[in-house]
Amino acid sequence: MSVAGEAGPGDAVTLGELGEAGILGDIFAALTTTERVLVGPGDDTALLATSGPVLATTDAMVRGRDWLDEWSSARDVGAKVVVQNLADLAAMGGVGTGLLVTLIAPGTLPARWARELTGGIAEVSAATGVPVIGGDLSSSDGAVAVSVTALGELPGGRAVLRSGAAPGADLAVSGSLGRSAAGLEVLRRSDADWWPPQEYAEVAAGWVAYHCRPDPDLSQGPRAADSGALAMLDVSDGLVRDAGRIATASSVRVDLDEEVLAGSAGVYEPVLGARTALDCVLSGGEEHSLLAAFPAGEAPRGWTVVGTIAETGAAGPGVWWRGERATGGGWDHFGG
Ligand SMILES: [Mg+2]
User: DSSP letters along 189-225, please?
Assistant: First the structure.
């Protein structure tokens, strides 16, 4: 990598000044490893011992698109991009075995930012026992992007796809709905000098924290697979949109439970109002809770049944809400 650092007098050290070897030395020194990493960072590739089929997924975040520096610290970004990847593994019933991290940034980026990014990655890596086994650095003219590739395996030996939902099954969620979106909404409104009512300040701060650094219970993925989940994914683009993916892949209809979901929205309503609260629950993205279909009555304890799976009618696969097909909502990278 060749980057031209242009730090002014008194500025913090930049990536350009530190150089690739210095940056990588910094980054990998902060990370832990496991015995299955036969060759770690520093050689041409890593060498990882595996127990069978390998899950592989990748997800990137771009400054200005996927995070704003005003709202998210480098540590938040590092933690979030890893969690997004591990949630995809969990959504198959899997667990992570290794992470590959790529940072693309201008030479003028403060080295401190990259170190804190690594700190966020290292925190999730240590908490989940999934080591960083390699990475890459590349320079840009200004864009900052962080990409993570996660490798994983299936403890139960069975991958849970999106296509296994069958009529009569329950659709259930592990964890929250709408919390990340509620946090984003609080951030947006606070930019316009709006603040949550005093008695909700703490709970609203919790939503913001979850938006910046989601913390879903990923152990529920393998648990769901063990419990006979028929189809599963993580809620990354909103309940309606993600349930729609199960509906399409499984050629079924999903009927969402109005009463249960109105209850979920009730948490946000006193702060955000009824309409926004329901939007958060139905369309809020980046939640990374797991959404799965189980044979009727067999959702594991702690999961919340939010709908039922039915035969498609003449209208074809889709998601129904209050007797109508639910469309749109949720985040689309290119549709906005
Ligand atoms: Mg996913």
Answer: HHHTT----GGGHHHHHHHHHHHHS----TTHHHHHH
